[in-house]
Design brief:
single chain, 3 domains, 3-stranded antiparallel beta sheet, 9 strands, 38% helix, 5% strand, Cyt_c-like_dom, heme binding, C-type cytochrome, electron transport, Membr-bd_ADH_cyt_c
């Protein structure tokens, strides 16, 4: 199920309550490497420019800007399996934003996940990743945020179900799942690899979406970047390994860079939440940083075939039913899809993405192609492609059976070998609200 975490709510409560004792013991052991700089020291133009770049690299604007609101003024609703969190105002407004925050206050939030008043922050704010950001980079980000126009915008309080509304339970969660500490370079790797690891693991917080989570919303140990459902959004963030069984199998370094920079590559196109990341953040990164990220991603450990994105966990259908669906899907594809994606599924280079050999189409979880057919595919607007092509939504035109048929067809045509999709699965994903 899409929100399977909720099945384990009772287990989660028991685990967290048990862990409070551990949390009390470890909370006092967290190292606060603040430098005692509690004032608002003047920042140089170079530091501010660097901070602007880093804030963009972290895609801070995406979460800290509400629909129709002022940039960085916060109060955007973040749905989670445990309730709703509202994001903070990052502008230097004294009453509702960071106006009275010192650089040390900001560092503690980023590095330790603690607010200015010492309260524990909910990990919807990805401090488990941001803790890896170096102090100098955090100071640069702070310097840039202080140059923004102050916006008076008070953040709504969290709307969490019991017992998750009891903030003190975070002590237990942190004892189990949070390790504070800046990124430590691997001396056996190149400077480029370490730069990529720093960006992917820390500032880019890629694991926030691309790592599966457990019943308590924590990233599963030992499964970093192996792909997972994005909580409450109904999209699947694919496995990022580039070996034979990974989600980036067959992708070159340049293919990865092209996707991050422009939203398009010869291997696929960014849609859904990833399109927003490219549009707001990744397109602005230096080519050297994008190549560093690609080098790091291509070095991720090999997966076992049974753990890979190619392993099927889709609903098993009777052979006769699956055959009929695929046959129906072939007709629908020829009628509605082949003009752009071509009869051979190869698409048109840098215009319409290929479906043949597409790792997202072949993934174990078929939610992304299902959602793309239902909602349409909208590429990011980038400097390279300021007027991108888009795919129209078919939710009103195609029934659940028709969507299941065409997605089943593209998952089995042209050498693809993924499991077919059932109409009931399409109906489940059709009902997910769009956030």
């Amino acid at each position: 199920m899409i929100v399977r975490w909720k099945r384990y709510a009772a287990l989660g409560m028991a685990l967290v309550l048990t862990a409070v004792v551990l949390g009390a013991a470890t909370a006092s052991g967290e190292k606060d490497s603040s430098h005692g700089r509690t004032g608002h020291e003047a920042a140089s133009a170079v530091q501010i420019a660097r901070g602007k770049y880093l804030v963009r690299a972290g895609d801070c604007i995406a979460c800290h800007t509400a629909p129709g609101g002022q940039p960085f003024a916060g109060n955007r609703m973040i749905p989670t399996p445990f309730g709703v969190i509202y994001t903070a105002n990052l502008t230097p407004d004294k009453a509702t934003g960071l106006g009275d925050w010192s650089v040390d206050d900001f560092w503690r939030a980023m590095h330790l996940g603690r607010g200015r008043d010492g309260r524990l922050l909910y990990p919807a704010f990805p401090y488990p990743s941001y803790t890896k950001i170096r102090r100098a980079d955090v100071e640069a980000m702070y310097a840039y945020l202080r140059t923004l126009k102050p916006v008076h915008s008070r953040t709504n309080p969290p709307e969490l179900s019991f017992p998750y509304s009891w903030r003190r339970l975070l002590l237990g969660w942190r004892a189990l799942y949070f390790d504070a500490g800046e990124y430590v370079a691997n001396p056996k790797r190149t400077a480029q690899w370490n730069r990529g690891a720093y960006l992917v693991q820390g500032l880019g917080h890629c694991s926030a979406c691309h790592t599966p989570r457990n019943a308590l919303g924590a990233r599963k140990s030992g499964q970093a970047l192996r792909g997972g459902m994005i909580p409450e959004q109904g999209w699947y963030a694919p496995d990022l390994a580039a070996d034979a069984h990974g989600g980036l199998a067959g992708w070159s370094e340049q293919d990865i860079v092209d996707l991050l920079k422009t939203g398009r590559s010869r291997k696929g196109t960014a849609y859904g939440p990833m399109a927003e990341v490219v549009q707001n953040s990744l397109q602005y990164l230096r080519n050297s940083d994008l190549h560093a990220m690609a080098v790091y991603l291509r070095s991720l450990p090999s997966r076992r075939a049974e753990d890979s994105a190619m392993s099927s966990d889709a609903e098993q259908l009777p052979a006769k039913t699956a055959t009929a669906l695929v046959a129906r899907g072939r007709v629908i594809y020829r009628r509605d899809c082949s003009a752009c994606h071509q009869k051979d599924g190869r698409g048109v280079a840098n215009v319409y993405p290929p479906l043949a050999g597409n790792s997202v189409v072949r993934a174990a979880n078929p939610v992304n192609p299902v959602r793309a057919v239902l909602l349409g595919g909208f590429e990011p607007t980038t400097a390279m492609y300021p007027r991108p092509y888009s795919m129209p939504p078919y939710a009103q035109r195609l029934s659940d059976r028709d969507v299941a048929a065409v997605v089943s067809y593209i998952r089995q045509a042209w050498g693809n070998a993924a499991a077919p999709v059932s109409p009931s699965m399409v109906g489940e994903y059709r009902s997910i609200p769009i956030h």
